[in-house]
Design brief:
The structure is a single chain. This protein is rod-shaped. Strand 5 and strand 6 (80-86) form a beta hairpin. It is built from no helices and 25 strands. It has a 5-stranded mixed sheet, with no helix packed on it. Strands 12, 13, 15, 16 and 17 form a 5-stranded antiparallel sheet that branches. The protein has a 4-stranded antiparallel sheet with strand order 19-20-23-22, with no helix packed on it. It is mainly beta.
């Protein structure tokens, strides 16, 4: 009896599958411009082309998410997507943010933008190259009044505007008021001022108003006085020194004569201001 042989043939079928991976991360960067505002309501806005499934996300300077006040298309037919954040609770200062598109929790490239909260204008005055209470004519125009605290400026003298520059060189003595403004308002017209005194370059020559031109030998003291305009101080001297000694207070000097001296003597008074001027009497 013959054996029957059974042959089993196995067929291996290999299926080849290919996959295509689509990136879901946005590649566009929203458009956003720096802005500024006064304390109170204010917004930063970002805009990008509308795409289904794409939203915006805002971050502060530390990279932490910022609450978005509103976002979406302005209307159902709009081709742009808009978002904004609110600044109503922010105090004056400069704040840095960034905004990006988001799709499927994937954040795209960020756009950096700043928002400046302005303060109510407060005028401040400083000076450069001189003391405002004693400005010599020769120091002009190097002497400057400098304003700060606003974005526009007005300097007022005797009720009239003399300059609308941030800094300027005054040409007259008087009380200068500074008024500053920005988009948040204008400071008070009498809130800040500075008094300026401009002096002539040279004092007038001293004029003796009390002088003893003849002194008898044996007299002990004589008093001399002068007057001069635009003068801050006086100096006195006597020559020759053998004639006596001189002591002064301002425009007055007392000479103590030496009893043994006889002959001519000269009393010199010098007035000082922005420069000096001298007068003598013998």
């Amino acid at each position: 009896m013959k054996k029957r042989t059974q042959t089993i043939i196995y067929v291996l079928v290999v299926l080849s599958l290919s996959f295509q991976v689509y990136s879901e991360c946005p590649t566009n960067t929203p458009t956003s411009l720096p802005a500024q505002g006064c304390p109170g309501p204010g917004f930063l806005t970002a805009q990008s082309n509308y795409e289904v499934g794409v939203t915006h996300k805002w971050f502060d300077a530390n990279g932490s998410p910022v609450t978005i006040t509103s976002q979406g298309r302005p209307n159902s037919n709009a081709t742009v997507y808009v978002s904004r954040i609110d600044f109503s609770k922010y105090t004056p200062g400069i704040y840095n943010f960034s905004v990006a598109e988001v799709k499927n929790n994937c954040v795209g490239p960020k756009r950096s933008v700043t928002y400046t909260v302005l303060a109510t204008p407060i005028p401040n005055i400083s000076t450069q190259n001189g003391n405002p209470t004693a400005v010599c004519e020769g120091a002009l125009p190097g002497f400057l009044l400098k304003g700060s605290g606003g974005t526009s400026y007005k300097w007022v003298l005797n009720g009239g505007i003399v300059s609308e520059e941030k800094e300027f060189s005054p040409t007259s003595s008087g009380r200068y008021y500074l008024i500053v403004s920005n988009i948040c308002g204008t400071s008070g017209s009498t809130q800040k001022y500075i008094d300026v005194t401009i002096k002539p370059n040279t004092p007038t020559a001293p004029v003796f108003t009390q002088a003893q031109t003849t002194v008898c030998k044996g007299e002990i003291t004589s008093t001399y006085k002068v007057t001069s305009s635009n003068t801050e101080a006086y100096t006195w001297s006597i020559s020759p020194s053998a004639a006596g000694t001189i002591a002064s207070t301002g425009n007055t000097a007392d000479v103590t004569w030496k009893s043994a001296y006889s002959g001519n003597a000269q009393i010199v008074a010098t007035a000082y201001g922005c420069s000096d001027n001298t007068t003598s009497i013998s």
